């Protein structure tokens, strides 16, 4: 396994990459734990960590030894969210108006735009306004390199195999926070699969994953309450053989949601995700044979 660690992302590649790589690529945009010194939030570090998709890159990490590249954000989600559009800028955070018009965004209204204004419980992240230069720096140093590298990995796999299947890996709390979504207090299933109602992937990809998980006793929801956001939207083009699926896993399956420590279920879930990866590799090979 080869691991590279630029400022924006951590990239884990199979030992014989790209010679032995299949047509599957994983990314974990919310696993970053390197908090930049210019962040300067007004909340304690422990509170900031609740925004992370804690352990998600490790849970899927066995895929790398199976020939699957895995890219994970190095920067934390609360600093800048790689799974939001660069236009989802919250004007309430800014010290001066953004020079271009900003579109309406439900997530921005919740304080969860490209740069978060508050945590899931409504706690403000800052006791100050952000300068335009600060926002631009985060986009240039973190958001753009992450998207560019993920795009490169997907292009490589597509060039080798004629198709590529992309899993956008996430975690979700067992119960939605008050300011996390438009459905506060919602009790989440074990998994939510999102392909933006079939627009970012051939539905067969989603249905294969859903069936595999359900056969092992997991409760799986499709496109509800999470349909997939910016990364699957940007890279999923099924008419071109580019299939992107967001997978949300419930944190109650593998960790204590207060201490963030792995629970007794961690090993089972990690083993099941390894099994799912193996099954997907066989399935994708059959699609490209």
UniProtKB/TrEMBL annotation:
Database matches in Pfam families: FGase (PF05013)
Keyword annotations: Hydrolase
MF-aspect GO terms: hydrolase activity
Protein name (Swiss-Prot/TrEMBL): N-formylglutamate amidohydrolase
Organism in which the protein naturally occurs: Bordetella genomosp. 2
